[in-house]
Amino acid sequence: MIATLFNAKHDRLPKILEHASGDKRFKILEAHMKKHQFRQDALIEVLHKAQELFGYLEDDLLLFIACKLKLPASRVYGVATFYHFFTLKPNGRHTCVVCLGTACYVKGAAKILAAVEERTKVKAGETTPDNELSLLTARCIGACGIAPAVVYDGTVTPRQTPETALDHLKGWIGHGD
Amino acid sequence: MVIDDLTEIADKERAARKRYTIRCCMAAGCMSSNSKGVKEALEDAVNQAGLQQMVEVRGVGCMKLCCQGPLVQIDSATAGATFALESNEVGPLYQKVTPEDANSLVSTLKGGQTPVQRGDPRHPFFSAQLSIVLANSGFIDPERIESYITAEGYQALHDVLRELTPKDLIERIIKSGLRGRGGAGYPTGLKWATVGKAASQQKYVICNADEGDPGAFMDRSVLESDPHSVLEGMAIAAYAVGANQGFIYVRAEYPLAIARLHAAIKQAKKYGLLGSGIFESPFNFNIDLRIGAGAFVCGEETALMASVEGKRGTPRPRPPFPAESGLYNSPTLINNVETFANVAPIVRKGAEWFAGIGTEKSKGTKVFALAGKITNTGLIEVPMGTALRKIVEEMGGGAPDGGKIKAVQTGGPSGGCIPAEELDTPVDYDSLTKLGSIMGSGGMIVMDETTKMVDVARFFMEFCMDESCGKCVPCRAGTAQMHQLLNKILAGNATTRDLQKLEELCYMVKNTSLCGLGQTAPNPVLSTLRFFRKEYTDLLMPDAFGPRPNAVNGTGHAAAGRNLAPTEGVPSSGK
Predict the structure, then answer these.
(1) Is residue A71 part of a domain?
(2) Confidence of residue B78 (pLDDT cuts 50, 70, 90)
(3) With contact defined as beta carbons under 8 Å apart, do A84 and A126 qualify?
(4) A119 to chain B, minimum CA–CA distance in Å?
(5) Do A72 and A19 share a structural domain?
(6) d(Cα B123, Cα B175) in Å, to the nearest integer?
(7) Structural domain of residue A24, as residue ranges?
(8) Using CB atoms and an 8 Å cut-off, which of residues 296-325 of chain B contact chain A?
(9) Alpha-carbon distance B407 to B419, whole Å?
(10) SS3 B115
(11) How far is CA A29 from CA A86, B55, B82, in A?
């Protein structure tokens, strides 16, 4: 994919910049880059902001950032794909993050995940076909004292079981059934 | 800002102290159980009862017993005391408080009764703790710098700038015997001295708050409960080594810690405790936050610095060590959150005081995150050398529901499992290393009889496989192969030869990987093999061909001819 990015870069860049001029979010992003004086070592901060604004990092957005920070597209793409926090695909309307840290794992987080996977019929890291729910896993959210923990739409919820987890997801899934 | 201003702030705070303080835990653990709602309800209840003049509701940092959250504690003041600690009068501790309980809790101040579950503040979980790093945690309001100043905050920085030369300061840290709390345990004073000696105009101080170990949440609690202690520690370190710029590299998974750090830095700048001309001295120091983006390997110092520079977080070979050439090729001091939090108390109370705590080679205290199959989960800070049994059985209350403890895992994916028979081991750097585990950053996961050790080994191997940055082959390919072998063993399709292969691979990856991630990735496998070998062999298929001929008598430690494994069976240090 990176090859196609490069080949098409010369044609795409003017289009992206034109498109960007009409979108307020790009302006906010550019202001953020300006705050960092367009420094190349602020790339990760800029990507954080971009993901906050757009929800995910699409190719055009990465090219836009590369152009503004005067970085090769490969570097921006390389950083965006290296870190787990950045996502290149849009998430579903809701997110459910099952913590799989050690404490949660020994207290049965794997069972919760299995139950949710079975119910939603998607694997961890995927989004349901109706775009309602993204099922994700975390390596440890540091909530080990209240394990097992699940994060529903950004809210950490303590001491979950497969039943409580499915109960929580009831409103978000199952429109297809 | 001069010292009089500090005293003035502290006096003002003390004068404003009301007769009762209702402390409500506002750290992430309790917040997820709606402690924010509890705090608001308590404030409303106080107002309704017309007790605003007598009662302060204070949001505080972690109150340690996370499993019973949200926690609320009510202190009554004796004259002049700002904290319950000063008056030695710790009030009743209420557990699992809900917003509906607020009215009855407030009514106890007027002699009423409350049905809310009471905790015992004299339980060994609390009484066996010795707080240095967490001394303020649960008492001060982490969102107000004034609260920290009242607890003698920033005095150490003042004293250092006025009375100590950098050389004397480093001498004092060396004398205290403080060792790095990030896991490896390198003497902090020596590290400072090396950076101090480096000849360079530009030096940096970095605080490693990329607490990636699953099962560890000490650094997060320190940052959420007492962010200023880390800032002060960093400023003191910067003065010692001659740096003027600091960075805190904190995980994106800790939004609350990030918010509190942002606020803390802003307040410290406003008061002139960070920035230029601190305490009207020529010393300048600024701190910036860098937010990680979810890569475990960034806890490794060279990878972390690459990430601060906005690059992929891959490690590079050392030497040159960061102390000589680190961030932007300048000499860089990099320490863990807990290490920095120890600095100000050492300066305030003296190196001898600190060196008097702990064991001969490990001084001071260590914060552990106690979690897993244990009754009391939460944060504990104990003197080095405390027996593991005391931590797990007395303080932690043993396994819940009458279960039996099987092993304690320390050090996360880089550590190992300590079996129940070895629970009398004192917790210090060297004893844990002898058992094939490490102190690590302080995660302590208790496992009971239902936990399958091979499964645990696979769990950690999967973690390391996912988190391997891919730069060096032994780690990238080795972890994947070991993961496959563990899967094969768990599926019941493996033979003795597979187990031999697994052990060979362990030593190979351990000895040839570029950075700490790969070098320690086999530890969970090796330590479970050492203490729970039977669980592995029970899963093996009957082997038609027997062990491979060049292996050493089937007990493992194969491939003697390849010089990768020590023949006596003790894991080598890798060098």
Answers:
(1) yes
(2) low
(3) no
(4) 24
(5) yes
(6) 34
(7) 2-82
(8) 296, 307-313
(9) 4
(10) coil
(11) 16, 45, 45
